Inverse folding.
């Protein structure tokens, strides 16, 4: 339960004194912490500075926080939640002596700072006070520091990190605090002396100045010190930020900042994006024309950066060539072609879109039709040309039909003609002659066999033995049991096979004959 300790006294004309209790001590008995606890004594911790006792006891009494000197000294209290704070009460240790330039503790108090923060890091909070002018003779004790902000942690800080120090400063920093009290409204979204007045409804997070009730910020779409005004045209959001310059007339939704309408060439909720490639105009709804080399048009006005594609013209390159013209810049007339209709050609390439005039052919009607040749394609290929095909310029045939020859196949080859029955007579003669030759040949072979048969048979029946024996003396063979009268039948290079030896071939010049007489 917060204690109401801050008292405002009002003296009326009747000299009657009315005491009004205002603001709550938000730090009473809350958790406290310090960096350099005093190591040589018990019951001198950081929590003694929030016990609510404001007496001025001696150092050994146990009512004040004691610290050990160091380069820096820090003490803080955790209020447990974020509160609206009005002021902070600090009472430094005096050691029962009168406070003044001769007091031993004044040198420790000089140069201190006080912060309010939503975290334990003082640098992430708000600096409420920083002593830069006090001296030993002028520094007050106790001291009230007005700090109308919101926060959870109240932090006392002192340092001796950058010598030389001002005159009268101690060499070390201390945090010997006897009492720290934080006064504010314990009820959220309230302000005023008794914390009974609600903050304006459009204050950001419901927070307002604890005395005046002015908002620290506004919810989206509202403006003014109490957030009861909308943003002027062209502005939006918590702090009435300026609408995008791409919004038409710089007007946007007063809460979201979304443009009501985009300028030409832009899209997106806040008109932050240029038209996609190939589109332009209001709402990026118009397709670009036929820009050459696939260039994209200007996203504002749709103009191509260079020429139009062949077959197209106009400042947006979206107009086809007029009838009778084609190509780049629509600068080529169709009437120099042989189209059936002289103005009837494709706007891009110039191809005839209808048929060609007589004797002409091709997409552009610029070469001769089949079977035609000549400068004006008005000459016909010779009928003697094979398939009636000829050179389109000279008319020369590529090949001739039948026995024709010549450049135009204008000549006839002379061919000897046999009588009608000559072929049949020749065939009969050839067949008859062939049969006769075959017959005579067969008769001759038969007669020769009949003459040879008795003599050949007698010769084979002769009883002789022809034995071939390899010679051991001179490479000759010995032949035994051979009748002398049979020798004339043995011819040079005759081959004989012995049942006792492999087949051998001997020349008659190397045969040694031994007759059995």
């Amino acid at each position: 339960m917060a204690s109401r300790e801050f008292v405002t006294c009002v003296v009326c004309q009747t000299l009657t004194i009315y005491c009004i209790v205002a603001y709550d001590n938000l730090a009473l008995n809350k958790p406290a912490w310090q960096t350099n606890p005093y190591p040589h004594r018990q019951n001198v911790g950081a929590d003694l500075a929030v016990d609510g006792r404001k007496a001025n006891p001696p150092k050994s009494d146990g009512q004040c926080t004691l610290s050990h000197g160091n380069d820096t000294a820090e003490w803080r209290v955790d209020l447990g939640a974020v509160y609206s704070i009005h002021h902070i009460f600090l009472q430094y240790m005096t050691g029962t002596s009168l406070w003044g330039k001769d007091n031993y503790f004044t040198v420790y108090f000089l140069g201190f700072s006080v912060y309010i923060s939503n975290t334990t890091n003082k640098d992430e909070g708000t600096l409420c006070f920083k002593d830069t002018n006090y001296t030993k003779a002028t520094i007050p004790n106790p001291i009230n520091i007005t700090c109308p902000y919101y926060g959870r942690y109240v932090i006392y800080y002192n340092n001796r990190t950058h010598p030389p120090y001002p005159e009268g400063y101690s060499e070390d920093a201390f945090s010997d605090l006897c009492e720290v009290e934080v006064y504010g409204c314990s009820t959220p979204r309230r302000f005023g002396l008794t914390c009974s007045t609600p903050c304006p409804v459009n204050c950001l997070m419901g927070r307002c100045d604890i005395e005046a009730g002015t908002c620290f910020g506004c919810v989206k779409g509202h403006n003014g010190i109490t957030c009861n005004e909308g943003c002027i045209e062209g502005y939006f959001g918590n702090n009435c930020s300026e609408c995008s310059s791409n919004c038409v007339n710089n007007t946007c939704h007063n809460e979201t900042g979304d443009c009501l309408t985009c300028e030409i060439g832009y899209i997106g909720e806040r008109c932050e994006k240029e038209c996609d490639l190939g589109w332009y105009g209001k709402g990026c709804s118009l397709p670009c024309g036929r820009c050459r080399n696939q260039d994209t048009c200007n996203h504002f006005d749709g103009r191509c950066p260079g020429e139009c594609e062949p077959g197209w013209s106009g400042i947006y390159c979206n107009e086809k060539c007029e009838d009778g013209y084609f190509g780049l810049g629509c600068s080529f007339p169709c009437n120099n072609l042989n189209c059936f209709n002289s103005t009837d050609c494709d706007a891009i390439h110039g191809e005839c879109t209808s048929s060609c005039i007589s004797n002409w052919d091709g997409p552009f009607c610029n070469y001769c039709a089949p079977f035609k040749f000549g400068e004006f394609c008005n000459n016909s290929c010779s009928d003697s040309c094979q398939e009636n095909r000829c050179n389109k310029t000279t008319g020369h045939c590529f090949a001739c039909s039948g026995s024709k020859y010549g450049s135009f196949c204008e000549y006839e080859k002379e061919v000897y003609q046999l009588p009608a029955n000559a072929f049949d007579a020749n065939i009969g003669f050839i067949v008859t002659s062939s049969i006769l030759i075959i017959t005579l040949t067969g008769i001759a072979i038969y007669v020769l066999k009949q003459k040879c048969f008795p003599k050949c048979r007698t010769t084979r029946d002769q009883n002789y033995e022809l034995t071939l024996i390899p010679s051991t003396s001179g490479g000759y063979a010995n032949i035994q049991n051979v009748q002398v009268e049979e020798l004339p039948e043995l011819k040079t290079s005759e081959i004989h096979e012995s049942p006792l030896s492999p087949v051998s071939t001997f020349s008659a010049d190397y045969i040694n004959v031994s007759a059995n007489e």
Observations:
- The two ends are 170 Å apart (CA to CA).
- Residues 25-186 form a domain with the Jelly Rolls fold (CATH 2.60.120.260).
- Residues 1-21, 458-517 have pLDDT under 50 and may be disordered.
